[in-house]
Automatic annotation (TrEMBL):
Keywords: Membrane, Transmembrane, Transmembrane helix, Transport. It comes from bioreactor metagenome. The lineage of its organism: unclassified sequences, metagenomes, ecological metagenomes. One of its GO terms (cellular component) is membrane. The chain crosses the membrane at residues 32-57, 69-86, 92-114, 126-148, 160-179, 200-225, 237-255, 267-284, 356-373. This is Inner membrane protein YbjJ.
Amino acid sequence: MLLLILIYLAFISLGLPDGVLGSVWPVMRLELGLPLASAGLLGAVGSIGTVASALLSYRLINRFGTAKVTLVSVLMTSLALFGYSISSTLPALMLCAIPLGLGAGSVDSALNNYVALHYEARHMNWLHSFWGLGATSGPMVMALVLSLNLSYRAGYRTLAALQMLLVFALLASIPLFERPKQHDETVHKSSKAKGIKHKALPFALLGFFLYCALEVSTGLWAVSYLVEVKGLAATQAALYGSFFFLGITGGRILSGFVSMQLSNTKLIYIGLALCLVALFLLCISPLSFAGYSLLVLGLGCAPIFPSMIHETPRRFSIEASQRIIGLQMASAYAGSTLTPPLFGLLGSGIGLQWMPLMQLCILLLLFLCMLLLDRLTKVHTL
């Protein structure tokens, strides 16, 4: 139980930095005299680091183990956040963004695989709900620091100190990771090793890319859609936009309990069906219902990502899972990185009124990927 709590805390720490830069950038850029677009550059540098570390995680974990990789990753994140607090130029901030991204990709791959192998599906869903808690808490910590008339630098130092506390906790818990755990029964029934050359792997990677494309595009452009297309006031649209993330976080807590009765694949298809209903409602519903449409969309997204990860050892074997999960995380981060600018270009060219249709196309492609993946790995969907 102690180890599981530490894993949950590690995922809170993974989420802590994710929303901070966006929330503090208006203050930060004015103090440093940087252009507005510089935040996108920092995000791109961090994303490249995240993809690179996710791809390398297989070799690192095989050599050093999950505990040490997680420990060093959280330490890198802490040092990067402290670096943000003392940096005064864009090149210095970009330099700090590299270890921030490297740390995120490694810990994400390491802990996702560890939980997929050693814990039931409910813990995977709850694990990702704790990421949401971290992503929500980071901006709140920064806002609290700023409300005390302190600099954003003090906010970054506070977040760095919180990460460092986890480093000490992980340092003391290294032996716990080495203890043999009882695998989930579904993992025990996994077929023999199919390896990295399995013909279903491209569909698994594309599935993660498409899911993150759907989630990130909604999070980034839904509020703009409500304002520019639906004519909603900006403050109300921002409130409705938060319903999407509330649906994801709350839905993953709920999915943890539902997964005790339903398989991962059933949860994935239920989530896809809810997303389809939500996009339909978003197009035709009155303004007063727009927020609830985004809430339903968040609930639909909630079980998809954790369930796809937890199903990996059963689809591709325990032996191949760490390497494949590293590839899946890299594909997921690539989807998160490439989709926002693509949606921005499409929105500028053809208008945001087509956003639900574009998301529907992504959703249908994701549905086809899941069907092909299930067929090729002989997973029953009913």
